[in-house]
TrEMBL record:
Protein name: Deferrochelatase
Pfam families: Dyp_perox_C (PF20628), Dyp_perox_N (PF04261)
Entry's localization field: Cell envelope
Region Disordered, residue ranges: 1-23, 309-334
Domain Dyp-type peroxidase N-terminal residues, every copy: 87-230
Predominant localisation class: other
Lineage: Bacteria, Bacillati, Actinomycetota, Actinomycetes, Kitasatosporales
Co-factor: note: Binds 1 heme b (iron(II)-protoporphyrin IX) group non-covalently per subunit.
Source organism per UniProt: Streptomyces hydrogenans
Length: 438
């Protein structure tokens, strides 16, 4: 039976490898132990350097077990493929844990050092995503399977000057406009290089973060780092759209991979010319750390919270009626003659039909970095959105939200980044090779 995923839309549980390179085994029948799997099917042998054993049950599901003696739960066994047309971590279903890290190249490091770094990083990402254990490993993730680990690499505007590649910098990396409601800290913004790590296990995610930081060596140093989370797989009775820390169902109206125009909106086409040629199959990520003013938000009665967004809190259904997936009826009026979805409601203002069709794929993590001296939580959304061109995605929508979104009094954009995320690496290639060696 197909299930719905907040990022990719309906997901078939029949095919082992989906469009997004996700070996989709997590939603199939769980196998308790290799013994149980063996009764149902066949242990087909070891995969990877960690002595991982894979079991196939009679319904075709695949479970991977550490050491061959014990099956992992399906959360641990799910593997996302590193190589492909697009990098992983864009259409991959939201993971429970995330790290966003920006690096600056070290003084004196240029194109040659950057190429060597991307080669090292790609090799590490491929190894860890396959659940293999690199030599000299820290041991942090021993016993765990790949756990849907993804690692995604991007280049910031400043990377191109540092590497002598300014002529190949796409215009899409021109700085985002300043928005009137911004309270952006430059030290926690932008960066030469950006790495997004996601995994369904916190140790697996941290393990990848450590390995990549070590790989950076003398070539690059961390500029900023942010840690995020989402709901764990299996926490709800059925797969459903995620909630954010305001308690809203968030992600409903994301573009779906099955939409006919999905690729055109999210990925740079093959055949792109000029400075964009190396970006074929790539995408642009806008990253915003958005603090939620939770005390103020939680002081609002539920009905007012719902009018701020234009959707019901319980199930995410539009205030114009229907269920979560019913399209917004922006013209519908209540018995009092007022618009059912208020004219400053967040969902109305951000809807593609209000923005000349501008659309983006939102793939955020929540964050919580402790309680401030004033007693308020430093918590909110690590908003990450993907598009083929930020000027036809994030920018027009944020311009409009900036002018009159009912949500604005309850949030604060505290940092910002824009990164060119090249297409995925083919077997034997590293991410960014077409730029760095082209
Ligand atoms: C500029 C882009 C956007 C920012 C920044 C943003 C921040 C933000 N959003 C929520 C909560 C929700 N957003 C929802 C919908 C929605 N938001 C954007 C864009 C930005 N949001 C878009 C394009 C859409 C889809 C609009 C549509 O097509 O209908 C929703 C409704 C459910 C959904 O469709 O996801 C919620 C809830 C927060 C809390 C937030 C900043 C912290
Ligand atoms: Fe939103």
């Amino acid at each position: 039976m197909p299930v719905s995923n907040p990022v990719t839309g309906p997901v078939s549980d029949g095919s082992p490898a989906s469009d997004s390179g996700h070996l989709d085994i997590s939603r199939r029948r769980l196998l308790g132990t290799v013994g149980a799997a063996g009764a149902a099917g066949l242990v087909i042998g070891a995969a990877g350097g960690a002595g991982i054993a894979t079991a196939v049950s009679d319904d075709g599901s695949v479970t991977t077990g550490a050491g061959g003696s014990r099956a992992l739960t399906s959360v641990g066994s799910t593997e996302v493929v590193f190589h492909g047309r697009h990098q992983p971590g864009i259409t991959t279903p939201l993971q429970a844990r995330g790290h966003l890290v920006a690096f600056d190249l070290a003084a004196g490091a240029g194109r040659k050092e950057a190429a060597a770094l991307l080669r090292r990083w790609s090799a590490t990402a491929r190894t860890l995503m396959a659940g293999e254990v690199p030599s000299g490993d820290t041991g942090i993730a021993l016993d765990a399977g790949p756990s849907s680990l993804t690692v995604t690499f991007g280049f910031g505007r400043t990377f191109f000057d540092r590497t002598g590649l300014a002529a190949r910098r796409p215009a899409q990396l021109d700085p985002l406009p300043a928005f009137s409601s911004d309270a952006v800290d430059p030290k926690r913004s932008e960066g030469d290089l950006w790495v997004q790590i996601g995994a369904d296990d916190a140790l697996v995610a941290f393990h990848a973060l450590r390995a990549l930081q070590k790989d950076a060596g003398d070539a690059a140093r961390v500029r900023w780092q942010m840690n995020g989370f989402n709901r764990s797989a299996g926490a709800t009775a059925r797969p459903m759209t995620a909630r954010n820390l305001m308690g809203q169902v968030d992600g409903t109206n994301n573009p779906k991979t099955t939409d006919p125009d999905f690729d055109r909106r999210i990925f740079v086409p093959t055949g792109a010319t000029g400075a964009q040629d190396w970006m074929a199959g790539g995408s642009y990520a806008v990253v915003r750390r958005i603090r939620m003013l939770l005390d103020d938000w939680e002081g609002l009665p539920r009905e007012r919270q719902e009018r701020v967004i234009g959707r019901r809190k319980a199930d995410g259904a539009p205030l114009s009626g229907g269920s979560e997936t019913t399209p917004l009826d922006l013209d519908k009026r209540g018995p009092d003659g007022k618009l059912a979805i208020p004219d400053n409601a967040h969902a109305r203002i951000s809807a593609p039909e209000q923005n000349g069709g501008a659309a983006m794929l939102r793939r955020p993590f929540s964050f919580h970095d402790g309680i401030g001296a004033d007693g308020t939580p430093d918590a909110g959304l690590l908003f990450v959105c993907w598009q083929a061109d930020p000027l036809r995605g994030f920018v027009p929508v944020q311009r409009k939200l900036d002018r009159g979104d009912a949500l604005s009094p309850f949030i604060r954009h505290e940092s910002s980044g824009l990164f060119a995320v090249p297409g995925g690496a083919a077997e034997g290639e590293y991410v960014g090779q077409r730029l760095l060696e082209g």
